[in-house]
Amino acid sequence: MIISYCLDYFPLMNHSIQTQNLDHFGIIAGIIDDLELENIVDSIIPKHPREKISAGQIVKAIIINGLGFLSKPLYLFPHFFDDKPVEKLLGNGIKSQYINDDKIGRVMDALHDNSLELLWTKIGLNTIKKFELSTEFSHLDYSSISVQGNYNCDNQEGENIINITHGYSKDKRPDLNQFLIKIMVSNDGDIPTFMKIGSGNESDKKGLPDLISSYQKNINVKTKYVADSSLFTSDNLQKMKELSWISRVPMTIKKATERIIKVSKENQWIEWEKPGYKYQEQKVNYHGIEQRWLVIESEKRKESDLLKLEKNIKKEREKIESKQKNLSKNKNKSQEEIQVEIKQLKKKIKYHQI
Q: How big is the CA angle at 41 (ends 39 and 43), to the nearest 5 degrees?
């Protein structure tokens, strides 16, 4: 909280005192200043001499508002800063009424026209340099952002155009339209270093190499890419021939299950230095690319999986026995009808035979 008063001598209480809430926004403003975000935005969208507030200050205000954990219409944006020390947060001479929906809309349009990818590139490069981040590993993944309302943009084409539509929802809201955030994060401090926006129905498997390609084009650093099993497809492997990467091999690949079975049967495990873990290292040529596969076993995970398996077997057995009792009690069904139900039941069971 910031307190301001009128006279030099505070004990004279016949004068009004004004309070403003700083809350956690001072920390946010300080981090934004450390990242030089305001200057980076202003280098892309220069301030017009007649403007009272710059594009960089608007972006800073949007971030502060977003981290205020509020959800209000855009036209109410200025009221968010009514009880806050605006000049302390955004700069001398700045008033809350300057941060209106018209100005915000113009800045957002200008950022889109000048490429958000360019903005993230500049922020990423500056962050890596300023904080001396290690770029030995870069983690990449997708996140879906669900949105309310109707959108009529399916199957539009063109540069920097995305389709806000239904797709695989990672936040468990398949009923809503969505768009995707494709992001690259440093292993050193989990700092986002690059980002692209994607259509709501874009496939992880097809989009990850595109993210890597854009990252290399814009931020030319030597790194090893780390991603989940969606990266591991035959097409993606061909695109990444000259790169270093780490990924989990999908268990849908026959060669992977064969390797695990072989290691387990022959007991070829090597004890890891970390207690409770064993591994086996193998050189594999998959789709013409030499790779090193690690098969890893965790004792705790193994115990947990076996308990889960026993529970599932018991649950399935109870379901079958209940079905059998119902069939034996029902005297109205013919032999053919019972055979059909048993046949359907056989398709659903996994651990038993009838």
A: 70
164: nearest Cα among 177, 149, 173, 176:
177
Q: Which helix (H) or strand (E) holds 311?
A: helix 299-329
Ordered structural domains, the chain, with CATH: 2-114 (no CATH), 132-248 (3.30.420)
Distance from C-alpha of 354 to C-alpha of 349, rounded to nearest angstrom: 9
What is the C-alpha to C-alpha distance for residues 49 and 28, in angstroms, rounded to an integer? 28
Distance, in Å, from the CA atom of 338 to the CA atom of 292, rounded to the nearest integer, reads 52
pTM metric for this prediction: 0.72
Q: Say if CB 104 and CB 58 are below 8 A apart.
A: yes
Per residue of the chain (354 residues), give pLDDT as tens.
554 444 454 555 556 677 888 888 999 999 999 989 999 999 999 988 888 999 999 999 999 988 887 777 777 888 888 888 999 999 899 998 898 888 999 999 999 888 888 888 888 888 888 888 888 999 998 888 888 877 765 556 656 678 888 888 888 888 889 998 888 888 888 888 888 888 888 887 878 888 888 888 888 788 899 999 988 988 888 888 888 999 999 988 888 888 888 888 888 888 888 899 999 988 888 888 899 999 999 999 999 999 999 999 999 999 989 888 888 887 788 888 888 888 888 888 999 988
